[in-house]
C-alpha cells in the first residue's frame, strides 16, 4: 500500500483536504434536490451538509484515503467533492463525485476523476469501482467517459445499482 496523496493537481482544479468553511460550497450541491436525487433522495439542510463534509473528513482518518474538496483554480470556489469513498455497506472502494450544479458541463468531474484513478489503483492494488444508482444517467455517462465499464448490477437500498470498474 502507498500513502494516498493528500492533494492532487490538474490544470484547472486543486483536489485537497477539506477545510472548515468548505461546507458552504458543498452546500450548493447538497441543498439542491436534483444533485442529491440518487444519493440522499432530498435536499440537505446546512447542518446536514456540514455533517456530510465531516464524514468525508473522518473517512480520511478511518481509511487513510477519502474524497477531496474540488477547488476551481480560477476562482478558488469549492465545486464539490471527488475521491475514494468506502462506507461500510458499500461493495468495495469507489471513486465518488458530487459537484454543485453551477459547475456541471465544464468537464470538471471527469478531470478530477481521472486525477484520482491512478493513485487509487496503486493504493488499493486493483482498479476501484463507481457505485451508481441504475437511474442516474448523468453519472453513468461520466463513468463511461472516464473509461469505466459496467461489471454488474446489484440490489441496494431497495433499488438496482450498477458497479462500474475503472480502468486497470
UniProtKB/TrEMBL annotation:
One Pfam family cited in the UniProt record for this chain = Acetyltransf_3
The superkingdom of the source organism is Bacteria
Name of the featured protein? GNAT family N-acetyltransferase
Matches recorded under InterPro entries: Acyl_CoA_acyltransferase, GNAT_dom, N-acetyltransferase
Domain named N-acetyltransferase: which ranges? 13-168
SUPFAM superfamilies reported in the protein's UniProt record: Acyl-CoA N-acyltransferases (Nat) (SSF55729)
Tell me which species this is from.
Parachitinimonas caeni
Which PROSITE patterns does this one have?
Answer: GNAT
Q: Which PANTHER family match?
A: GNAT FAMILY, PUTATIVE (AFU_ORTHOLOGUE AFUA_3G00765)-RELATED-RELATED, N-ACETYLTRANSFERASE DOMAIN-CONTAINING PROTEIN
